[in-house]
Amino acid sequence: MAKIGYLFVTVLSFMLFNSCSNRQEAQLPTIQAPSSQPKISSVSGQKPYGAYLAGRVAHLRKNFNTAADYYIQALNEDSQNQDLISRIYIILASEGRIDEAAKYAKISLQKGDKNNITYIIIATDEIKQQQYAAAIKTMNKLDGTVYKEFITPLISSWAYVGLNQPDKALKELSIIKKEPSFKALYNFHAGMINDYFDRTDAARKHYEVIVHEESLEMSFRALQVITNFYLRNNEKDKAIALAQKYNDDKLMLDMLNKLSNSVQAANPSETKRIITSAQLGLSEALFSIAATLRQGPSGVDLAHIFICLSIYSNPKYDLAKLLLADILENREMYAQANEVYNEIDESSVAYFSAQVKKANNYVSMEDYENAEILLKSLALEAPQNYQVLLDLGDVLRLQEKPEEAISYYEEALSKMPSNASQKWVLYYALGISYDANKQFSKAEENLTKALEISQNNYLVLNYLGYSWLKQGKNTEQAFGMIIDAYNQLPTDGHITDSLGWAFYQLGMYDKAIEYLEKAAELEPANALINEHLGDAYWQGGRKNEARFQWQHALTLPDDTGEVITKDVKAKIANGIKKHQPLDYDQADIKSKIATISQD
After folding, report:
1. pLDDT in tens, 180-199
2. What is the pTM of this model?
3. What's the CA gap between 186 and 175, in Å, rounded?
């Protein structure tokens, strides 16, 4: 199933969540950033400046709730500070504290801040408070083509719904039809508005544009809403057929299966409509905006705020929470993302997927123990879910438990469809684990399968080629595989290290030094690369540089298990013996060297 396929919208981003840049005029959807150092008065001594500095530290550490509280404390002592007010309402909005954000946005507006986001925050709060006419008036103040032809129509149309004016709502929404890429988006919201007002035939017409036009992508939310519509209108067969149509997206497979099962088990007479108020419709509009902006390479800042506005409008909107968590993960705020996942109830269609993502975040935080515990419980809950078994194998492998990892990888392999696109990844992981478990014949078997299925993926080429060279076997083939991997990705430090080490094994020390130096530049904090470079320097007669590299290697982390501290210390003290190169076919190797891509 395809992801949301709305128009790509370019946004000029600002570094809200790190350091702030100077103010700039918005060209497309953007937020005018506060100046990086708001002036803090010293009327009351150092107290406001101290609170500001504490907020700044929390801000830089991405502890936004604490930052906002300190900034508010500073503002209480320096109430005329416009830059600080702007900073506060943006951070509050990004933390979902929308009622507070609206309060400070209004203060900022009174002081002359006419930023589009100021109006949007205020309008969202007005619709939440059922002040629909006021919200429409507020949204009409937005400036800029994308706001007028995309954001304002979506938000204002649902304000008109709140005023019980369906024709005005649909007229306002129709503005977005100017953009062909918004065809699915327009029909989805037009369908929901008509459905809300019990205009069943009109709603069906709009929904079925999305259902029947193959060029339009079906979002998961549209799938939920349209199957719900069919059920409520005694068209269960249509609902079942639609729910079963989408089953090829591995990232949403569990959600799709749960939706399909719930549709099959549903009693049409007891099925309740999803959109029961203007506030819930607004939440859908804000979600659609956030999802669209999220697709842009610099749209994450705005998407973050819009998705928080969506959740404010519908605190039970689990798909919005998934998107918020995804944005937090993009910012490497894994603990905060997990807090969002914890808000998703076990009864939700998104629960299992949220737990899988939560486990992945534990891995990102290198909390492998909690990741293992969670994944094992998920594996018991869904024993046929090969992705969970694969993730569990990865966690165990990262904890250097290859034997246990192998058992889960093998189980995942037995349950994975034969045509699964990531099957080569599983063979690759199995090969690595068998290698770590000193079962190289099985490692070689699985790596070879991975190589074939992946059509010579550079990761597999590099790993198998390097492994063969370590064993002194298949020299010419291994050398060629590493060159192939390097040609695919010459900017990868690990692959460049393999190529340098391959030259070392052949006794071509000048070439080895050339590529190992490049690898060290690409991966300066890698212990094994620095050790390899030291070895090459020694064999090349550069002994002082060799000892420096070995000493440096001892200060760096090693994730390969190949850097043995006592051996490196012995090298520093005594140097290394003259290296015995591998035997090889000179003509074959010379021809392969000629194929190396040049920078």
Report:
1. 999 999 999 999 999 999 99
2. 0.81
3. 9
